[in-house]
Hints:
With 353 residues, this protein is of the alpha+beta class. The protein contains eight helices and 17 strands. The protein has helices spanning 59-63, 86-99, 107-120, 196-200, 203-211, 257-268, 280-288, 326-339, and strands at residues 4-5, 29-36, 40-48, 66-68, 71-75, 81-84, 132-141, 153-163, 174-178, 216-218, 235-240, 243-247, 273-276, 292-299, 303-312, 315-318, 350-352. A hairpin with a 2-residue loop joins strand 11 and strand 12. 2-OXO-4-methylpentanoic acid is lined by residues 70, 233, 299-302. 2-OXO-4-methylpentanoic acid (COI) binds at residues 70, 233, 299-302. It catalyses: L-valine + 2-oxoglutarate = 3-methyl-2-oxobutanoate + L-glutamate; L-leucine + 2-oxoglutarate = 4-methyl-2-oxopentanoate + L-glutamate; L-isoleucine + 2-oxoglutarate = (S)-3-methyl-2-oxopentanoate + L-glutamate. Belongs to the class-IV pyridoxal-phosphate-dependent aminotransferase family. Its EC number is 2.6.1.42. Its cofactor is pyridoxal 5'-phosphate.
Amino acid sequence: LNLTIVQTTTKKEKPDPNQLGFGKYFTDHMFIMDYATEKGWYDPRIVPMQNISLHPAAKVFHYGQTVFEGLKAYRTKDNRILLFRPDKNMERLNHSNERLSIPPVDEEFLLEALKQLIAIEKDWIPPAEGTSLYIRPYIIATEPALGVSPSNHYLLMIILSPVGSYYAEGIHPVKIYVENQYVRAVQGGTGTAKTAGNYAAGLKAQEGASEKGYSQVLWLDGVEKKYVEEVGSMNVFFKINGEVVTPVLNGSILNGITRNSIIHLLKHMNIPVAERKISVEELYQAHANGTLEEAFGTGTAAVISPIGELNWQDKKMVVNNGETGSLTKELYDTLTGIQNGSVSDPFGWIVEV
Ligand code: COI
């Protein structure tokens, strides 16, 4: 691979693998690559983790022209290193780029560069159960100019963070607040792209939910505020009367790779699964008549997180007595088993570094 590598001479001490939390520690190296309109992407390099210096007028600061991805590297019992469907993240990065008027990247090249970075940082992949090395590729617009137009200069970086579970609850069910005031995305907006603004715009609602004792908000559709969309850090699934349902990708929901994998797994397990519109009223009725059997969220960071309670307009829906459902548990075990190499992968999802 045509890539410059500068290794650090001062390695950091590794954090306690049982106390990682999410995204608090960073490894010794990073990947970085420049873009200029006249040159295309150039000078890919792996260098010691370091601060970057940007002009105060860099477009990303003013107009939010930026995209990101999230994936993980896993350590197997026999010390191999696995990635889970990384080609899908590269594909989605370019989908986000397209939406944000950022030039596309060479997906195959970036995946090879990412593998090199992981190989250099392999000692940072934590050994503890339920941990992994979170990989955060992202692109920022760096041209110093205040006109609202696509930047002529960008930086693409990949940083790595050893992580445990995303939620403080760990593998215990989270409580989710159904958001009624604010919306996350509308069709034609940026909801299907992984871009910073979607997350910034969600903070206000999340703060409100958090004050009421809820971990995250469940977003409703931006037009009627009637149909369930996603949580922001995860897609959502409900088991209603034996069938698993998840909101259909409608042009404002993020196309989650874990979401897609769970749909494949359910089909493989011969469990009925449907992608369709789901109103919050339907969930409420299903809860009232006892057919809302399980609820969980899916995401790279969140993995599979059981949902133990939904609150809609101060009406509480406790799901499965606030405990992890048996299907949720089975899906968690199968998915994480495939990811960490302890369960065979019938789908060809695993890529060895
Ligand atoms: C991920 O699951 O990787 C994400 O990007 C969600 C993020 C909000 C932590």
